[in-house]
Records
---
Amino acid sequence: MKKYMHILPKIGLSLLLALSFLGCNEDEFLTRVPDGRFTPSNFYQTPRHIEEANNALYRQMRGLNIGRLYQYGEYRSDNTTFEYDLNDRGRTANEEIDYFLMNTDNGFIGGFYNDLFNSIARTNYIIAQIGDVPFEDADLKLAREAEARFFRGYLYHLAAQHYGNVPLVLEPLQDGGESLIRLPQSNPDEIYRQVVFSDLQFAVDNLPLRWPNAETGRVTRGAALMAMARAHFARREFADALPLLNQIVASGEYQLQDDYADVFRVDNNSEIIFAGQFDAGANQGAGFMLSWLPESGTDITDGPARNQGGFNIPTCSLLEAYGEGDLRMDFSIGFYDTPFNNPELDSLAYSKKFLEVPFPTGGVGIDIDFPIMRYADVLLMQAEAQLETEGGLPNSVFETLNALRARAGLPFYFPGNPVPELDIRTEEDLQAALRQERRVELAFENSRTYDLIRYGIFEETMLAHGEIQREKQSFLADFPDAYTNIRTLLAIPPNEVELYGYTQNPGWE
């Protein structure tokens, strides 16, 4: 059941319009509210209103994960690229992300920033108003507030992770954008201390382990623990993350699916902690997958030729990362034998992890979900935290690696293995094996860039990746600066710098 995705929240555009009226009190016409419209002052009156406002946050989080976050979590890594089209230069902004050629005027930079802070603004209204809303069930009221705090904490984690110093806004702004002039940028230490960890801890304390069946799909205590662990991982605070991951494992709520395919084909299965959900019954569908398919490919979809985008295409580096016979590769990656407008290629790899062939045009009619958090990631993070805090060759790390490899149909790692590449003798060997396993297990799930940054090898990896890409893609001769300016943080949008005097991030001046 996917109840929250069926509801079309009334908050949507009407609330955004209402926000634009804040601070206009000189003219009665400007302050009058059109009949039938909701505003921040009259919307948050009932438990139903709070539920609908929270529902909108799920839609926002789903949109971020199938849009902005693959651009930054996969494109800006050695995992994926795009199908270059000499005749279609309208995709320059995407190319700039992949090539590390973005300037501050790239619209995807400001778009992501605005998406994050528009969503944060929504959470602030819910949190500010829910105290005055009468609920018959006190526990449900705490859970609804915990949902909003989960999203605010996680959104601020994403903001700090991508932009560094950002304004800390924890109350609804009552006079519109002018309030931002009085809000300086806060550094990530302040962001994590004042909102990320405090909000996520509130969510851990007040979200249920599971919701009633009618509300399956909402964030749970496990999701809040995972969000906190991810935030600590981004800061390399492994000793703080490990107890959180241990709690998820000890809860008994989650387990690996026997078949890797079932993780992505069976709704709300035991491996999914939190997913962006699609529901064919509500005329939804995973239409984002069309842009990940080759531009041609009439046997992949039931639509006409060239109705795809050719984005998020696997790199040769990713293909080579899979071991021989890895079932995850067979399930996750397809090959199309007639790439559009690219005579250099005999075939083109594409992600098929979130689709079933033939894929319906527009994606409507399927309800494959996008996993935002899943248990395999918990186990891999737990193993990494154990290795980082304990060192040596912990048996538990081998157990995690080999459980995932067993599902993938691969032989096991162990000390003294007669197969040299599976023989783990040192901590460095085990670390390399763990990182390799993480890459192929979580491919196309928006993790790779952040893993490389956490490992401390982002710049060197992407410089080396650029050299490989130049060898394989002759058109990169037209982009001599591609993969040369590797910046970890995104730019602060230039309008924010101009309007509010914010400091620009290094390398973007």
---
Amino acid sequence: AAGERIFELMDTKGEKESKEILDVTEGEVSFQHVTFGYKKETDVLKNIHFIAKPGETVALVGHTGSGKSSIMNLLFRFYDPQAGEILIDGQNTKNFSRKSVRKYMGIVLQDPFLFTGTILSNITLDNPEISEEKAIEALIEVGGESMLSHFEKGIHEPVVEKGSTLSSGQRQLISFARALAFDPKILILDEATSSIDTETEELIQRAMDVLKEGRTTFIIAHRLSTIQHANQILVLSNGEIVEQGNHEQLLLNDGHYAEMYRMQKKSEPSFA
């Protein structure tokens, strides 16, 4: 079965790739009436329209299957929309090579993947443009100084595949340092605080604040308490933006967001 899929992939005709190089200086992201479906007959995103200004933080919230990850898939050009345009600094990403579009983006996943090597190689990904000094600086900046002093070999501490010998907080800090070292204009955070303890969450939250500074940031939010300071929150349902605004505005609207916020507040443990 696996062999069949491999040969099917090898037989698939490649797409023509543009040789035009995208140049990004500000990092403004605009979705202009975007409609998209993984299958032509089923739209998973319908008429998505918003503008993320340079340096703004935009949070995407909604239940599983609402379209949050699909928006990010389009931004990275893993797919192109069937209708509408995605613009970065006013330029349609469809007209440029995928590599040049992604050059300006960084992503931190909820469960980051670490490779066999060292802490250093996991930050630089063996990119010769990122020096050891820059990697150390990035790790310290996101709050990893105590981690460096904890390990006998410091930044040269060995890492096994998936980083299984490290704590979840340490793995997350390495992935944050990786994103900071590459210095992207646009940052995507698949919220990093949903499965770690409170003390580590505070450390990760501070690291996120460092990382977001001066970058256009998208947060796929699972815990609404962590996105109250976002410039705008897009509430998605069945592939549509059903509400849009900041935390205070959306609570006043008393709609989908306010209901989700109240439900999460109820489910939080009480230590009284």
---
Amino acid sequence: MRLEEQIELIISKLQGRSLSRESKEFETSVKWIRALPPSITPPLRGRLLDSICRAFSISVPDLYLVVDGVSLATPEKPAKPPPLKVGEAQLLSILPKGGWFDWYYEYTRQTESPLSYHVFSSLSVIGAALGRRVWLQWGFFKHWPNFCVVMAGPTGIVKKTSAFNIAEELITSCAVCPILPEQFNAQVLIHELAKLGGHQFVPAPEFSNLFDRQRFNEGLVTKFIRLLDCPAIYEGETFTRGREVVTDVALTVLGATTAEQLIEAVPRQVISSGFLNRFIWIWEEDTERCFSKPAIGNFGGNIRATIKRLKKWEGQVNLSPEAEALYDTWYRERKVKMRKLDPMVSKAVQRGDVHALKAALLVNSVQEDNIRVITPASIVVGIALIEYAEARMPLLVHELMQTSNTSDSEFVLKALRRMGGAATHSTLLRACSKRLNKNAFILQIRTLEEAGLLVMGGSGLGSVYRLKGEQEL
């Protein structure tokens, strides 16, 4: 009798039985496992191990410990930060009463997007309206009011796109500035900015599409990050037009994404670098709002009139002495707290001090009569808004880490499941191309086939991959 046939016989004899680890059968089974040659296929070996584990009520790690003396430690999953309370009360207590924020609240109140998405996207609108005409002189440096926000959360639950669309419509209807196309490469970016001016709005309702792996390889990300610093002059090379010059750069980005989309599409080099802290990330997991039919609220005219007023404003702003003293105290306390943060979270919020100054400038511009002097009230609101966003950052980082830890094999299986369990070679390769190149893809296919999780077949029409059903495993 062939060895494979003997193994099949053992599997059939163990099926449905409940045996003691002290029995002779367990000792015999352990000897069988130790004697298995490497030529035994992984699926057959796996079925034998599974049968033994079921019959003798032993876990796979414990069985490995008995057979080979190898301890298989279960990897610890990072603890998820405690959930933050869903609700608008905290944010409403931060916002100043009367004016812009009351208007925007009423205007968007009958939509299902969380209030935080509306508040921070409205700050992006204010920043886009101010452009590069206004700045805060801060020692050797100037801080410009461009406020780049990414709304993050699970698909379908928190209605990120709804908040995005409302803000983008205000940019369009008030002719705030040109709007870049939603997808572009490094060449198109430089040309569009050179042609229409450096003051532009960057829509990213699918944020991961803006910085996918292909565009990263083209150098888009490094150029884009430099442009977010609002240089007075930026020179870039294009293939067809040679060197082009962009002046008075002021880019405002408003985006939306999920943790899964971010990890799957954006290169890991970008996620692990200082990329995250260039944006204010607003992570929400749920919303208490529920409206079957979203409705346009009041004060749309007030909001548009304010945007038009901001388009005419220019010049330098400064913090009042009292506001600067408040900021200095907060900054020093923040430095101490930053050293105690998880390294990934710390890296993601490193620019929070600058974001707080920008937020204070934006709040001051729509709430105060003397918009050239940032008041203590405005700096308090600016700091509180950034602390609200940063308090949610550990949850986003946890989601990113959990998603990033998904193996490449699991990624391929997930893509195949989304296609109903079967796909042609070219279709599945395209679905996985944002994460895996061709060689890496083929390696994962072979791994899954050897593991008995996937079957490869086909004819003259080409290869077809099929997910094995549970009854076949």
---
Amino acid sequence: MSNLIATDLQGQQVDSPLIDLFEMSLPDGTEIYFHPGVDETTSTIQFRSLDNSTINTYIALPLIMDGIDIQADGAMSRPTLTIANVTAVLGNALSGYSYDDLIGRTVIRRQTLQKYLVGQTPDVSNPPIELNKAKYKIDRIASESNISVTFELAVAYDLEGI
């Protein structure tokens, strides 16, 4: 975690909203980038890659990640990622893959402040300023309907048989 973002979040007033960014690898190795939306807009946003070599464009996609619980003992939490299925945005991004093809694929959750996105402040996000990333594997499809699809996630070392 960058000292700059820690200082921003520990102040009495946080002057920029916290943004969730998601990256998912497809079976052919390509990556798709998405975020749950910023304010009421459905625009795309940009943020630097983890290795700082490129700028990635994240598409707005109605989603919610629920059940994140960090603890030192006991069973690991199994968060869920629910993505709205009412638009074709996710289907188009999957390039012909089905939801079943995503089982076992990696989902990375990154968090930063809106002011550290590309274009918000001049070159302050070089290298990217963010909280620690969280890496999950899609373990199963918890539910699928005409409205949404819900994936159950697991940390890589918590999967059965490992």
